[in-house]
Amino acid sequence: GAAAAVATDHLAVPDASSMGIVGAGVQAYTQLEAIAEIRPIERVVISDLDDERVERFVSRFEGRFDVSAGSIEEAASCDVLSTVTPVESPLVSPEVVGEHTHINAMGADAEGKHEIADEVLLDAKLVIDDHAQTTHSGEINVPYNTGVLTDADIHAAIGEIVVGNREGRTPKDGVTVFDSTGLAIQDVAAAHVVYEHAAENDNGYPFDLLGLN
């Protein structure tokens, strides 16, 4: 969820208060937890074919948010939308996306996976995490490798925006999309935070992992 939160912070409208999530698996929980840290999320719409998963999600968060089950259309009309499914046929069409919705496309992690319609990707301010990974197995892999989408359609990598080399959302922007495949450096950074927390709180014990001492 942290990568999506960083992208949301730079690409969503500042006063985003509604969030839609398509897919009620484990990632749905971390998406909401992280994004609620950087936007004043009040209303949440969760959409999934599995009613039991939806019920568990609603039960988990109903004390903190105005959370309800809904359709993909209802989720996609929110200020922020996170898609966390393994589908190969796009679920989110241009007709259902809000005028200023920011989309975190998190589900694609292999060739052929594709959650967001090509028309949405082409019309949006499109941001990726890594060119090699996203064109191979990210959300844009299908339209990119069929020639529908090209490098000219990619606005920037999220790192370029974070360090200030490229702009994030501007007042004239409509829909924005973040294509996230997940990077090893993110895992290293998370592990470092865990290590520092453990060291500061005397939690755990040191050991010679590589046998160098």
From TrEMBL:
Q: Which GO terms describe its cellular component?
A: cytoplasm
**GO BP, one annotated term:** carboxylic acid metabolic process
A single Gene Ontology MF term assigned here is: oxidoreductase activity
Q: According to its UniProt record, what is one Pfam family this protein matches?
A: OCD_Mu_crystall
Q: Which family does it belong to?
A: Belongs to the ornithine cyclodeaminase/mu-crystallin family.
Q: What is this protein called?
A: Ornithine cyclodeaminase
